[in-house]
Amino acid sequence: IEQDRNLKLSLEDFDGELEISWTNNTTWEFTLDYIDLTDNRYYSVKDVYDDLSLFINPTNLCFTSLPVPTANPNNRVVLNLQDPFNASCLSNGRGNYELVALRLKPLGSSTNVSVIRTSGTGYPAQVRVITSEAFSNVQDVPNVPKAVVELLQPLYESPIELFDYVYRGETTVSK
Length: 175
Description:
- The protein is mainly beta.
- It has strands spanning 7-10, 15-22, 27-36, 41-50, 76-80, 97-106, 113-121, 127-134, 147-154.
């Protein structure tokens, strides 16, 4: 995932845990989109996993299963999506809601990412895999590809972030 770009993962009909791991140290912004079934409105909950200390006082207040970065040297988190929120982060408390998507955004650097379903059912396909192989008849070993190119194309387009803005500051903000 490129720095400051979103990867959107559909959570339609999914109720379980996702293990997310990455290759480079980076700070992550996690956004969980959901529909509150009490008022039928679309909401987003954000949290920061600050592995690069980009924020002076990062707070992981909304996601119940997000670890403290210093206690996680393996570049890996497991998000429990069966009960993902602290009640104070939900629009109407701990009411009925339907998860729509999880958006991952690296803030400190670009990185490779892996997402694995560790529990639960109904996790939809997220990417289309396109593989191309090139063969050569000149070699002594037939039917062995000389080159393999693999393209992973996301099935869900990330939304434009024009109105998806969060201000994070170290002091109280007043209107």
